[in-house]
Task: inverse folding
């Protein structure tokens, strides 16, 4: 079976982490999100994959190349202008000439693709959506099915009191090539707003299949930190990069390659540390994520924060709950980043707050 990874998005809700990399390249467990998807597809027999690219496309291309190291072939479909979810897939109709899977490159999941394909075939479906039960319906597209799992209607981010159920569209689809008859060529076109409502209208064999597998839409910083918590707690069947350390405080710590940890460092909760990082003596890290090649100064306190790659934090720096520091930032000794602040990288590397003050 062939597969298409949707990898053209910008990831604006993860700014400033996505200033210089596309969302599918944001690391979870010290691996890019898209790498987890590539491994998943390979596990379920997808040996031919195509990915659409747009924002910082060269980062994805240079990392995955032709897919040889994953035991598959990876082809790319660049989009100078975004084509929409359906338009981007239509552009690849020359490649997707048999039953195929479409999957987002910016979600963390261990979905059983083979089981989804089996259900698709049993139903004689033209199109199948994987559905996942969610608690916060107001953040998702909700799919309503009949007693035979045929899709009847949709609700886009309904209020909880108005939601007809809590089964969310995961952005994971199985299609037959006949789907291309319903997508015009060379124009922006969307599955959720255009293709799917039309399939319902004409009564096409269009089904929703509930899954019990793990799925997390890494759409914002809170979800990004939650994905790490779930990964290190073993709730998702995928493999991080690095070694797990269990501290005396029962913290779950993932340390990448060549990480140096100073004396009397204290870990709390879930902490992920990328390759080549240095954690200074007496630092306290709680429920935080640090990307590759960053340095945390002595006695610094990092609480429920995310730090990009190549950052330099001086001694006694304090990052309060919900703060995010872009890659390449430099923070001076004693700097304090207020809760829920975003620090962007200025030309010289000094951190610039979107809101609040340093110091």
Result:
């Amino acid at each position: 079976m062939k597969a298409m990874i949707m990898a053209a998005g910008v990831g604006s809700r993860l700014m400033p982490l996505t200033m210089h990399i596309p969302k599918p390249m944001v690391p979870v467990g010290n691996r890019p999100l898209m790498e987890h998807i590539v491994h998943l597809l390979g596990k379920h027999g997808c040996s031919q994959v195509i990915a659409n690219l747009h924002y910082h496309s060269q980062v994805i291309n240079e990392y995955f190349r032709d897919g040889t190291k994953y035991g598959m072939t990876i082809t790319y479909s660049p989009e100078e202008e975004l084509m929409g979810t359906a338009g981007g897939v239509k552009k690849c109709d020359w490649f997707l000439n048999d039953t195929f899977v479409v999957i987002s490159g910016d979600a963390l999941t261990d979905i059983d693709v083979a089981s989804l394909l089996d259900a698709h075939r049993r139903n004689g479906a033209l199109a199948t959506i994987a559905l996942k039960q969610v608690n916060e319906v107001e953040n998702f597209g909700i799919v309503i099915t009949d007693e035979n799992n045929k899709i009847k209607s949709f609700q886009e981010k309904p209020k909880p009191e108005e939601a007809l159920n809590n089964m969310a569209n995961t952005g994971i689809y199985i299609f037959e090539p006949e789907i291309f008859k319903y997508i015009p060529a060379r124009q922006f076109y969307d599955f959720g707003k255009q293709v799917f409502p039309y399939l319902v209208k004409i009564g096409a064999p269009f089904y929703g299949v509930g899954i019990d597998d793990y799925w997390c839409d890494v759409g914002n910083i809170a979800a990004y930190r939650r994905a790490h918590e779930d990964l290190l707690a073993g709730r998702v069947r995928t493999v991080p990069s690095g070694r797990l350390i269990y501290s005396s405080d029962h913290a779950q710590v993932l340390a990448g390659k060549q990480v140096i940890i100073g004396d009397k460092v204290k870990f709390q909760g879930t902490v992920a540390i990328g390759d080549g990082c240095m954690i200074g003596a007496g630092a306290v890290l709680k429920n935080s994520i640090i990307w590759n090649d960053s340095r945390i100064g002595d006695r610094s306190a990092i609480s429920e924060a995310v730090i990009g790659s190549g950052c330099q934090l001086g001694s006694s720096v304090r990052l309060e709950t919900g703060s995010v520091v872009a890659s390449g930032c430099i923070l001076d000794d004693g700097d304090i980043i207020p809760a829920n602040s975003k620090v962007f990288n200025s030309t010289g590397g000094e951190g610039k707050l979107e809101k609040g003050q340093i110091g």
User: Anything to note?
Assistant: The first strand starts at residue 2 and ends at 6. Helices lie at 33-43, 57-64, 84-90, 113-122, 191-201, 221-232. Confidence is low (pLDDT under 50) at residues 355-359.
